[in-house]
Known about the structure:
Blueprint: E1 2-6, H1 11-20, E2 27-30, H2 38-48, H3 60-64, H4 74-83, E3 92-95, E4 98-101, H5 105-116
Parallel strand pairs: 1-2
Antiparallel strand pairs: 1-3, 3-4
Amino acid sequence: MKKIYHLSTCDTCRRIINELNPSSDFVLQDIKTESITTAQIEEMQKLAGSYEALFSKRARLYKERDLKNQNLSEEDYKKLILEHYTFLKRPVIFVDNQIFVGNSKKVVEAANTAING
Length: 117
């Protein structure tokens, strides 16, 4: 599978997608207009290793809800990501059986290598 979960209104996501220049066989899913399904988040978790690895602690709602002072379980992370798209660390890039989560330079470079060789 070749897929990128992103937010079309996010400048960082747009920049990364332009930088990666994925081929037309990539599916782009805007998580704001097309919500993540339980099956999709479970598939991400299998490759990422945990729901926490997929969770964005930079989200505005994370601060607003004071979640940093709560002891969140894996199930909590999963529920929060499914509840609101802003909790997914973006972008999430699938290249065959590999997953790349987030926008750090290292992650983007690894995704670029997987996509463009």
